[in-house]
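Please describe what follows:
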Amino acid sequence: MNAIAIRSPAVARPRLQAWLRMVATVLTPLVAGAIAMVVAQLIGVTGRERSAIFYGVQLVAALAVAQRTYGLRTIGLGALPGSAAFGWSAALVAVRLVPWLLLIPLVGWTRDPLQLLSAFAYFLLFTAAAEEVLFRGLLLRGIVGLGAGVLTAAVVSSAVFGLFHLSGGLLFLPVFAADGLAFCALRLRTDSLYPPIAAHGVLNFTTAALLLSANVVSDARAIVYVALVVAIDIAFWAETTRSRRRAS
């Protein structure tokens, strides 16, 4: 009876160590990026340049941690996948932009090619790459390593991803979490991080740099937008899951 009621320290210790290692692998890049951003602010760097320093340092730290802990190939950074994998990225971008084009009032688009090139490089090579390596690479792999199922790992990592975007407001928290689930679907369907990085970067670039939108939308329109995005992302997860099962 005692053997059932009391967990042996010899069994519990490795589990605790695994949890601590997972938390450390995620926090280390975030702390490194935060320190770099504070230093940049102290020396007078502002705006997108300061943000690029944060994401750049975070990305380098995340890659170093990933290589040391799991290996880059294990988290999805091996050889580039074929064109079919990026076809899934294009499909996600296409369906995900539908609610934006339908419900967000547009006032035009950016025409300056240098500004567009700079913005595309920033969103793809800094924000998308850093966040995908952190959340769909380190965190997703770490949760699975603790014994969780794929769906549980995807949901938890996506919820954490959403919480890290609380600055966008509570109303849009489900959007970020659902987008995280869609990026997890890409990661799992293609067995690579490159397709979710591509989709993430293109979505951010399109909605934040290319298409100029009104700053304020009505609450009713925002709620409909959130509901549509969540539905589309969940449907994308379901379709990629079915496709992955058929392929296997």
About this structure: Residues 2-247 form one domain. Residues 9-42 form the longest helix (34 residues). The chain has one domain: 2-247.
